[in-house]
Amino acid sequence: MSVWAQVFGNPELYASTLALATPLALPALGGTFSERTGVVNIAMEGNMLVGAFFSVLVAASTHSPWLGLLVGMLAAGILSMGLAFTAIRLQSDQVVVGMALNLFASGITAFLYNTIYGASGTPPTTPYLPTVTIPGIAQIPFVGQVIGQQNVLVYLMIVLVIVSHYVLFHTTLGLRMRAVGEHPEAADTVGISVASIRYLGVFIGGLLSGLGGVFLSLGLLNSFDIGMTNGRGYIALAAMIFGKWTPFGSLGAALLFGFATALSFALQGVGISSNLVAMLPYALTIVALAGLIGRSRPPAADGIPYAPSK
Q: Of the candidates 31, 135, 137, 261, which lies 20 to 30 Å from 79 by C-alpha distance?
């Protein structure tokens, strides 16, 4: 069997793709809610970092990964309210605020990590979120190795994508969110509170981005490290844009980026420069953001502050 057949015929490549897509799909999904309501959200990187740190902090202290998950999501949701308040109430530049929150999250998590854990790092006894084996599917050759045994958050991510699609495109709340993101003046005239809907969209975005960070720290690992998101929040932003601000599109883009990352790991052992293959996911991100793969049109009022007429 050729080297390439060994690489592409290995089910571990596709299992890794699904796992590596999860911390991209979750914040991309959150960003979709935020931007569908008209608030540009590039603070996903910071939300992921905060979610990752506080989930480990609580899980290590209580020995409960589930409590860590809840606190991590809530911490990221609270941070996202900083973006919501400045963007909606103060009508600040949303991109600048988002970058400021990313820098703040990077600094505060590094400070707390060094203060609390120091050189010893997070406790090795920090619990993981469980891996789930699906009876029947796990025994199917190849398929079972890909989807039959994954971390619980991988399956939760798939469920959340389906639920988010339904909420956004088949419920009254979703219609209101999309209306506020496309034409807030029209939404306001029919009695929809633009500010409330935007706060909700940003908060959901923070929760889901935090969940992506929790997956890194308690799903893939059982520890936190400074800057462990490693730019995944920005790749998630590209996945959201590449996916045309839709849940299923964001998932598809996240799978593509996850595959590029998994492939870069697999190719490191076949004689190709590790530096070259490590560029794959980031090169793909640049291609997506440059608009070279189709044209993506954001919601018409995305990033535009709205001040209701008196």
A: 261
